[in-house]
Amino acid sequence: MAGSAETAPTYDLAIIGGGINGCGIARDAAGRGYSVFLAEKDDLARGTSSGSTKLIHGGLRYLEHYEFRLVRESLKEREVLWAMAPHIIWPLRFVLPYTQGLRPAWLLRLGLFIYDHIGGRKALPATRTLDLRTDPAGAPLKPGFAKAFEYSDCWVDDARLVVLNAMDAAARGAVIKTRTAVTRISRDGAHWTVTTLDENSGRETSVSARMVINAAGPWVDEVLGRVAGRNDVRNVRLVQGSHIVVPKLFAHEQCYIFQNPDGRIFFAVPYEQEFTLIGTTDHDFQGDLDEVKTSESEVDYICAAASHYFATPITRDQVVWTYSAVRPLYDDGASKAQEATRDYVLKIEGTGEDAKLLNIFGGKITTYRRLAQAVLDDVDRIFDRETVDWTASEPLPGGDFPFDGYDDLAAAIAGSYPFLETSHVRRLVRCYGTLTREILGDAQSLEDLGTQFGAGLSEREVEYLRAREWAMTADDILWRRSKLGLRLSTAERVALADWLSCHPAQAHAA
User: Fold this and answer.
1) 244: helix, coil or strand?
2) Which whole-number Å values give the CA distances from 57 to 75, 81, 178, 194, 308, in the listed order?
3) Which residues lie closer than 8 Å to 287 by C-beta, 6 or more apart?
4) Which of 56, 130, 312, 502 is deepest in the core (most CB within 10 A)?
5) Which residues pair with 205 in a beta bridge?
6) 4: alpha, beta or left, given left = phi > 0 and alpha = psi -120 to 50?
7) DSSP structural state of residue 365
């Protein structure tokens, strides 16, 4: 082994998992002055954190299960996160049609009244009632839907939210290691020895940490078993959710939230300008967590559910992409997957002066920052320190502009780089915000940006993603740092992969 307990670097915190919770905790902890080491066995946001419905939302249906604390916390976070990252988070209006025979209209309106008033809403507009017979939102739907309610939530580029938290953590001193699996943790009194294996080099090393945080998401129990040496642990209920992407179904920018007769709800959301995202499913998962795929039955279920509402049926041959993820919900004994709590649970192991292990079960992307605060409250208590919450008032990388200033920023950058098409500039600003200028630099023409891989993806952008955002493969770039995989042809995707293999990346500089 290349490292040892005597020679290994020592950190306050070693975090296992590079999803939204792990990276959010790393950012918060580094900003409070803790030394942080984070290891992710794959790419950042490779699992659950890139497989969401891409919403920052309170969770309207959670009110049915009386999860008022979770809903209130989530609602309060919407405008906080929007202000922190206005390039990747923005408001949406959701249309909820009343469907005869399902939840009554009075119940929907009561739920939305609560939704409007318990979360400290300031900038987001309130609920209103729509007449679908005259409102444009009714045009794509089947005749017969007359009444609907329209309310506010927010969109988020989930994978980029993870990466931006990792970037800010690294800028504040955290060490972020991707493609680095934690293979073993062992406690020696007041410290842990954390052994890792680098996927690329095959090199095994170790670090020392005063505390380990298990933020492995769906793999949290596997870490306790395989890495920490526990047997027969089960703390999370694994629930699979899948989505389909089809060509654009409607021209307006509103979203839909639909009720299904089985009690579930699903969304239809404008996606990447030319598409509509529809999902999600909810069913218990069994299988290999590294091989999660959308099943044929899930595609059929989503198509049938959407076809119940839209005038034009949605069929399997329209589907241009699917994605699926497994949610690690805390196992509270709920009888149905959709009824299991979306709240998070923190459990600390270790007594006396022994080094502590903190395990994270459950959670949702909307409350990741609050989860991190709760974790750091525990860390402060264990380390007998007094630090302050700070993350709400500091923008994420690229988000240092007014929450309503996206159009102004895009126009300013377009003026500085007149050789770029407007759509190209707007995509860059949506991804990188004020950091767009760092990518474009002194370029005076498209040629200055180097090789063009298709859909506006340039060599200079690729090099930025490798140097600053831990991207290594074509999938990292096309499906997590962006969704350009929807626009590149198979040949263009192969050409990008070939280029990456022929051009070694520089060391990460974040």
Assistant:
1) strand
2) 6, 11, 29, 36, 24
3) none
4) 56
5) 196
6) beta
7) G
Query: Residue 440 has which token pair?
Result: 């474009």
Residue pointed to by tokens 């690729």:
462
Region for 343 from its dihedrals, namely left if φ exceeds 0, alpha if ψ lies in -120 to 50, beta otherwise: beta
Residue in 63, 4, 67, 17 with CA at minimum distance from that of residue 330 = 67
Q: Which of 502, 428, 486, 480 is nearest to 458 (CA)?
A: 428
* Residue 460 burial (CB count, 10 A): 16
Is 439 within 8 Å of 420 (Cβ atoms)? no
What is the Cα–Cα distance from 31 to 188, expressed in whole angstroms?
27
Place of tokens 């953590």: 169
Judged by DSSP in three states, 263 sits in coil
Whether residue 312 has a cis bond before it, omega within 30° of 0:
no
CB count within 10 Å of CB 482 equals: 26
Tens-digit pLDDT profile for residues 228-275: 988 778 899 999 999 999 999 999 999 999 999 998 999 999 999 999
The SS3 assignment for 321 reads strand
Q: How far apart are CA 321 and CA 294, in angstroms?
A: 10
User: Are the C-beta atoms of residues 395 and 76 closer than 8 Å to each other?
Assistant: no
Instruction: State pTM to two decimals.
Output: 0.96
As a whole number of angstroms, the distance between CA 271 and CA 273 comes to 6
Tens of pLDDT, residue by residue over 396-414, are: 999 999 999 999 999 999 9
For residue 390, what are the contacts with CB-CB under 8 A and spacing of at least 6?
Answer: 28, 31, 32
Residue keyed to tokens 């600003």: 429
Determine contact, residues 399/407, Cβ cutoff 8 Å. Answer: no
